Amino acid sequence: MARPASSDAGVWTHGRGFLGGDDAAQLARLCRAPIERIERNRGGSTLSFRVWLTGGQRALFKPQQRAEGANYRADLAAYRLGRLLDLPRTPPACGRLMPRETLQRAADASGDTAFSQRVMTELLGRAEEVPGAMMYWVPGALEPVPGVERYAELLDITRPLLAPDVSLAAELSALLLFDFLEDNVDRWSGGNILRQRAPAAEAPLPMLFMDNGASFSAINGGLGARPSDQAARLDHVQRFSPSLLRALRGLTAQSLQGAMAEDPLGPCLSEAQIAAVLTRRDRIVAHADEVAAAHPQGGVFAFP
User: Fold this and answer.
1) Taking 70 as the threshold, does the pLDDT of residue 170 lie above it?
2) Are residues 71 and 111 in the same domain?
């Protein structure tokens, strides 16, 4: 069974909640609510399970496993980093321990022999329990966000930004900065930039910053697993949100350590990973200052 959460609130009670909800309440359920049913989650290359908690809430459990792009602690850390930046685009997530036998039974019941074998051989953890991230299940259908491949055009300060494109440009600016900060090297591999599908004739719903399992490296002097690719994308960001930049400037080793220590399974990031986050933060801030200095005529701080 999962350990009790050290806090239901902590640093996560301020600001906006994910999808306008109450993050503290969601975390309390994800951390401690009893499990009614669990089954294999279909789709994707990593091992994960659909979970039904008492009270009707659904969740996704991503266990510790051998796959490089499925680091459950990275998903936990991404949520906490987003909350620290008051950027509520990543689903609430809480570390839990699950009985290995429960996961194996769910895998066997799927009728997929290959999946069952993978669960038997690829899950990690100690003894009879497997640690993992219990993540909020985003309700409704999800769809790819159209137009994301235009990020270089939309964030180029030398090009006009038309009114219909402002919202998408703001979301892409935040996503690219967030991904650089956490060193997410899997965002642009296909199908990882999603939003909830809005009812017909209603405005599009916000972009979601999901799938963060391939993040938070501490290599190459803190500049990430693929520093050239990440630097190239950062260079395209020439329009910024001043509020997000203020939050980035305010990050400290102490604030990150405090946020990452809130999870019931212990710190989500090591000291080396936190130092790497701050190195990448410094690079973002320096880049924003350079762009602002090169374009004193304005337009750089285009978003709230």
Assistant:
1) yes
2) yes
